[in-house]
Specification:
mainly beta; Rubrerythrin, domain 2; about 0% helix; elongated; Large ribosomal subunit protein bL33; ribonucleoprotein; structural constituent of ribosome; Ribosomal_bL33
Length: about 50
């Protein structure tokens, strides 16, 4: 499978989403544009530790 990672909003730093990531194929941090319920708009969400 993969490693479970948490995505946090870049603007408000709220942790909104979780997803799986294949560590052997992707060594960099995951960045996805997702909807943030706190901000009320689409923002960049980055992988947290």
């Amino acid at each position: 499978m993969g490693e479970k990672v948490t995505l946090a909003c870049e603007n408000c730093a709220s942790r909104n989403y979780t997803t799986n990531k294949n560590v052997s194929k992707q060594s960099t941090r995951l960045e996805v544009r997702k909807f943030c319920k706190t901000c009320g708009k689409h923002t960049l969400h980055r992988e947290t530790k």
